[in-house]
Amino acid sequence: MAAISSAPERQLAESAADITAGEAILRRQAQRESAARTYARSLPVVPVRARGMTVEAADGRRYLDCLSGAGTLALGHNHPVVLEAIRGVLDSGAPLHVLDLATPVKDAFTTALFETLPPELAEHGRIQFCGPAGTDAVEAAIKLARTATGRGGLLAFSGAYHGMTAAALAATGDTAVRGTVGEPDARVTRLPYPYDYRCPFGVGGDRGAELSARWTAHLLDDPKGGVQPPAAMLLEAVQGEGGVIPAPDDWLRKMREITAARGIPLVVDEVQTGVGRTGTFWAVERSGIVPDVMVLSKAIGGSLPLAVIVYRDELDVWRPGAHAGTFRGNQLAMAAGTATLRYVRENALHERAEAVGARMLSRLRGLAAHHPCIGDVRGRGLMIGVELVDTEADPDDYGALPAAPQLAARVQQEALRRGLIVELGGRHGAVVRLLPPLTITDEQAEAVLDRLAAAVATASTAVRGGAA
Ligand code: PMP
């Protein structure tokens, strides 16, 4: 063995011996990956194995994963039916990459997906396989609506999140992520989303939602309102990144009415809410609205990248090749997606999401009663948000306390220390978000809440004591 001669070499060897393999990977990541990396900053975990909602890290620690690949893993990690479907394709010798050619795997996926759609859309619907990410599908939906209507403008909402490509980014509400690249597109008209806890009209409840709808209709009908007839309205039935904000059913129905009456295609982004997450298979089902376009990704690929739009056939105005892309034929994702869609449906996991989610919400509300720093607890199904507030600051004119992003970050760290992975979101990053798999057991749900409760207790004491 060659002797280690130089001082830097010796130092390297010593430091390599001192740190674990996982730490070395984290160090190399910090040195080599973009400053734009996100989850990796607040969750310094090196996953090496995972099953269901349990993730095991390189250092042997185990975590309950309430991030689920940003809401992707409806069945948790490595569910047997997903693995079996992937192995089935691999063992069959089928091609893995086929552009947009027809295959039995794709045919089965389309059939399984259509079986889940609102009947009106399934009967008169078309599907476009997009590039692999949610943002690709949002982009496609906007482009389709622009082509079909011959108009450019878009109606989008405060707090919206639709992705990182140009049109999707312009529709996104967060000016920090939009940066200068996603310059506020002059063609995007921003409308108020009914955010009950921080109602933009200062009234909240049904009245706040009514005012949001009224503002929308008024703006569209006012000949001097400054808004050109738009190509589409784009909305999330439950805002995810915006802070887990469920839109009231009546408001959604009103948006459907307003858009239908004015010939504006309604595009619902179900990228995060889809496949049972919110207690119904698709979030739109609760209100009964049928959108003109649905944007689907995340869970439909059963943990692999897949994104599609489904839309009413009268919008099918594209010429051949009008919306192309190399990676639209991911066979493994389609097989994993088919298995996931079928499993969720056959086992009514959306109902399970509703039941477990309701119990979790109720326990979290109990927790809020003991911790004034929990300003609001909300959600639908297994899409849950806990908004943290600064109890030492003055409330605004309408009684709401300011968001507490530092406290939320501390809660996330304390949760991690206790073996719980949670995500932050919301307007100021002050909402702790829970997106567990729909397969979560009752015991796991209790464990998640025990760990979160302990994290909130420790973090609120620490932050109050100035140790944040
Ligand atoms: N729409 C919604 C509602 C989302 O939550 C996301 C991702 N969080 C996207 C679109 C973008 O998806 P992707 O990150 O796969 O591009």
TrEMBL record:
Keyword set, alphabetical order: Aminotransferase, Pyridoxal phosphate, Transferase
EC numbers, comma separated: 2.6.1.76
Pathway info: Amine and polyamine biosynthesis; ectoine biosynthesis; L-ectoine from L-aspartate 4-semialdehyde: step 1/3
Transferase is among the record's keywords: yes
Annotated PROSITE patterns: AA_TRANSFER_CLASS_3 (PS00600)
Cofactor(s) recorded in Swiss-Prot or TrEMBL: pyridoxal 5'-phosphate
One GO molecular-function entry: diaminobutyrate-2-oxoglutarate transaminase activity
Stored NCBIfam families: dat, PRK06938.1
Recorded family membership: Belongs to the class-III pyridoxal-phosphate-dependent aminotransferase family.
UniProt-recorded name of the protein: Diaminobutyrate--2-oxoglutarate transaminase
Lineage: Bacteria, Bacillati, Actinomycetota, Actinomycetes, Kitasatosporales
